[in-house]
Amino acid sequence: MSKVTIIIPAKNEATALPDVLRRLRAVLAARPEHESHEIVVVDDGSDDGTADVAAAAGARVERHPYSMGNGAAIKTGIRAARGDTLLMMDADGQHPPEDVPMLLDALPGYAMVVGARTRGTGTGAHRGLANHVYNALASYVVKHRVEDLTSGFRTMDAGHARRFVYMLPNTFSYPTTITLAFFRAGLPVRYVPIEARKRIGRSHIRIVRDGARFLLIILKITTIFSPLRIFLPLSAAAFVAGLGWYVHTFATVGRFTNASQLAFVLSVLLFALALISEQVAALRFDRSEREP
Questions:
Q1: 3-state secondary structure of 8
Q2: In which order are the strands placed within the sheet that holds 3-10?
Q3: What pLDDT, on the 0 to 100 scale, is given for residue 142?
Q4: What range defines the domain where residue 285 resides?
Q5: What is the CATH number of the domain that holds 105?
Q6: The domain boundary residue, chosen from 202, 225, 248
Q7: pTM of the model
Q8: Helix, strand or coil for residue 281?
Q9: Residues 37-76: pLDDT tens digits?
Q10: What is the 3-state secondary structure (H, E, C) of 143-163?
């Protein structure tokens, strides 16, 4: 019988957490024939009694002495987990515990299953638009449709999760990194639709600050996982610009200009950078394959 570890990062969620844990326990109790389970709540430096509430509800509590970030809490949960299967969900009531069996039942045959929020659920219009942009960029990078890049409601094989735990950032963008890592490693990922609920309490995400951080992290991990998808188009664009300017200047003044030369040199440098970055990415994944 496999064991499932439910990892719940929590920061000042004493209001929402009791109901989430109560409903989660009821759902898990209804399927004892499938797998045993444990619930790990990672208290990320809360000052409202979140850890006490979680312990009173029977969860195993891992504590951070101060707030280290949502991603750091997830990494703590992964390292502390005893299960063969991991399931991550939020403590704020956005992720319905009643959908947990659906994600677990969808996992056989896949390395990870992600709860993809249906349009207009759980997010405002501005966040929905931002998620659409992130999904489109990620889909381009991995050459596969990414339905919800930033969803924190997901289940995965524990062994694969531990392979990439060192890559995960300490911020809210851990789903972005682990999603692209799984695709880059050739691991099958499945999306199932969910209806996210409105969170209880205030969000810890700041749209401008964290939105810009998400975009930068996507670009950063894209250059880590699939650098050719970034650098090759830039190299081609520089080459085409240089060639076009050369044709124009040769036709008008009959000479090869410094601007065209600079564009061609930039194109060659970007192409070389793409090849080097791709080799570094391959070495990184070769290492993760060898490590237990």
A1: strand
A2: 60-64, 36-44, 3-10, 85-88, 154-157, 112-117, 189-194
A3: 83
A4: 228-290
A5: 3.90.550.10
A6: 225
A7: 0.80
A8: helix
A9: 899 999 999 999 999 999 999 999 999 999 999 999 999 9
A10: CCCCCCCCCCCEEEEHHHHHH
